[in-house]
Structure formats: structure tokens, C-alpha cells
Amino acid sequence: MIRPEDGLYAALTRRGMTRRAFLKFGAAMTAALALPATYAPRITAAIERAPRLPVIWLRGQACGGDTEAFLAAAGPSVGELLLDLLSVEYHETLMGTSGEAATAVVTSLADRYPDGYFAVVEGAIPTADDGMACTLGGRPFRDVVREVCNGALATIAVGACAFDGGTPASSGGATGSVGVADVAPDARLVSLPGCPMNVENLTATIAHYLAFDELPATDSRHRPYFAYGGLIHNLCERRAHFEFGEFVLAWGDEGAQKGWCLYKLGCKGPETFANCATVQYASGTSWNVKAGQGCIGCTMRRFWDAMGPAHARLPSTIPFAPTITADQIGLALVGGVAALTAVHGSATYARELRNKVVARRRAAAAGRVSADQLQDDPAPGATEPKAPEPAPSEPTPTEFAPTEPDAIDPAATDPAPADPRP
Ligand code: SF4
Predict the structure, then answer these.
(1) Strand residue runs (E) in 71-133
(2) How many angstroms is it from 320 CA to the middle of ligand 1?
């Protein structure tokens, strides 16, 4: 049950948090939600008054990376704030009880939390063999997720596996794993894909709920726009090197030492929607591109199959021509545009030449130009039209010119490979 005396600010001050640090947290959450700074007082006031939210954290077919991200949220600020913001009532890794006493929490949620609770789901949900690859209290995890999420104030699916099945659902997977949206389609859901999810986005989602009494706006796959509305590539710290054609060509080469762009070593930043480049991990300490490893596209649908291999450019996006790469498609487009430009230039030149000759002949007929002058006119087609400048043979960096984030629905641009399961 939520008790007012357990409000977040009271809990924080008991821990010795200063007012200044608390206001700083409110400002950081406002920035994470991509809201104007004028919203900071509202966000801060809402968090200050907020009761601690009971959270039921379910973990299915997962490596534990999202729990690790949750617990390792850089301290002392964000980690403590998050743990104080939430009252984690059920989490198999964190709770002291086990067995029937623990399971009783998820089977009596309505009685225990009449004012409601938040559900957080980590990991994929097996559905093959009636879901018996993963059970909780002897019941298929699938059924528990459906029941808990449908009764929650809101559900947050954390990580790539809870988003759409993640790596357990990749080709060769035997458990028929899916994400939360597939087993609890009626739940009020926000998905925070990533491998692992960024804990800043989890905190910001909860802060949004507390401040506005509703979940943040999402795309059709439940990913909030504030975190997944823009391409990583557009705000990447190595973007200038991409534009200047300065690429790392081999691990440890001169370009790697100088921090050049990782595009040619398979960085999927130009195809991936997420705020990693701005929020980063570990309280803004670093992220994979900063550390010298390209983006692997882990926030995108079926990323393990669709965005791999990790260190190569994306394979073909044309299903019936699997050997054609995205770079080859770019080259073909550049060549096609150059050919069309040449044809257009030739036609324009020939038309202007013909008009000029006709005008001169009319002038001669009217006696304004001599026959000798008329002979100086070139016959149509006698002179080769000047060809336009040849197009570059390599795709230029502007191939990935910035895209308006607001105009893009990430769901519409996700690669969607065929379901590899039978
Ligand atoms: S390709 Fe990758 S490393 Fe290069 S600018 Fe884009 S996101 Fe950054």
C-alpha cells in the first residue's frame, strides 16, 4: 500500500540527500524527456510529492543485463534516486524471501496494492511447449506476465528481449520467445529496448508518469519518442569524421586512435533510433561508440538477425537479392542519377541548338543575316553536347544526410526480416 509518509523526497532527505542534488535530478529528468527547461519545476515538484511506486519486477528468459543496469546505475545519485523512486516489492534477484512466500506476492497483487503498482518485465517470454521453458511458481511465465501486466497501472518492458523476444527469438531459437506486447496486448505498455536498456530512460519514463499522470508518447511499438525518436547517427560525436570521409578501416589503426567514424567497421548508427549518443550510459560517462565499438542496432526490431553481423555493413535490404549490400544499392543509385542527368543535359543542349539555328535562318530570310554568316551556324547534331560533370564513383557521406527526427516513425523504418521460426 502506498503511504504518503513514504514520499520520495522524504525518503531522500532521510538518506541525507541535499535539496540542490534533488533539484539537479529534476533538471536531468526534464532534459532526458526532451522537454524545455521550463518544465523542470513541474517535474521536480511532482517527483517531490510522489509516493513511492510499488514495482513488480518479473524476469524471464534473460541474461540479467537489465537488472545489472538497474543496480549499477551510477551512484550515488541516479542509483539511489531510482531505488527510492520505486519500492521494489518483487524481484527474484533482490528480495530476501523465496519459494511460496515470494510467489504469494505476485498472486495477491490486487489485495496488497489496492492503489496500483507498476510492472517491469525483463527478458523474453517463451511460448513453445505451452510456455514451460520458463515458469514461476509452477505456472508458465507467459501466463504470469499476462496477469501481472494487465492488472498494472503501467508496464515497462526493459531490454531487447522483453521488447520483441531479443536474442532468444533470433534464428535458431527453440523456445518460441516473444516480447511483452505479444502476450499482454491490452497492457498499458512502454518498451525500452536496448541490450541492456538505459536506466536513465527507465527513470525518465517513471518521472513522466509522476509529473503528468500518464505514460510518455510512443511509436507503434511502444517505444517512447523522447528516447527512440531520433537516429543515433545524427547526434554522434564522430559524425564530423563521417562527413569528412575519415573512417576507421581496421581495429587499432590510425583512424581508431584518432577517434574517426566507425561506419566502415559496421556501425549501425545510421539505421538505429535511440538516444545513446546524448544520454550515454553510467550517468553520461560513456557509450559504445565513444569507447571505440560501433553501434550494433540493439534497439531495433529483431536486431540480432536484422542488424547483424556486428562488424560488417548491413546485408541487403532486398529480400529476393540477398547478396546485394546497402553500399551497392547506394552506388547504383548514384550511377542512375548521373545517367539521368547526362541524358537531360544532352536533350537540353540539342533543343537550344536547334532553336538557335531556326532563329538565324528566319533572320536570314528577313535579310538581317548574310548567307556567309548563316554558314557559320553549326548544323544540329554537328557538335557534341558538353557532358555534365561525372558523378563520384563512391557514395558520398551525404548519403546519410540528417533526417528530421519528428517526421520518422521508427516502426516504419525497422528492418523486418521473415520470422525464422517454423
Ligand atoms: S556511422 Fe556510427 S560512428 Fe560514424 S558517425 Fe554514424 S553513429 Fe557515429
Answers:
(1) 86-91, 118-122
(2) 28
Ligand 1 atom 6: the closest Cα is on which residue?
233
* Cut 0.85: pTM above it: no
Query: What separation in Å is there between the alpha carbon of 313 and the centre of ligand 1?
Result: 12
Closest residue by Cα to residue 223 from 163, 271, 288, 136: 163
Q: DSSP assignment of 235-282, as one string?
A: G-TTHHHHHTT-B--STTSHHHHTT-B-GGGT--GGG-B-SHHHH-BT
Q: Which residues line ligand 1 (CB under 6 A)?
A: 232-233, 236, 238-239, 242, 261-263, 267, 269-270, 289, 294-295
CB atoms within 10 A of CB 51: 17
The amino acid at 307: M
Compute the distance from residue 265 Cα to the ligand 1 centre, in Å.
Answer: 10
Does 390 score more than 80 pLDDT?
no
Nearest to 146 by CA among 166, 159, 131, 161: 131
Q: Under a CB-based contact definition with an 8 Å cutoff, are residues 29 and 227 in contact?
A: no
- Cα separation, 272 vs 268, in Å, equals 6
Tens-digit pLDDT profile for residues 204-250: 898 888 888 899 999 999 999 999 999 999 999 999 999 999 999 99
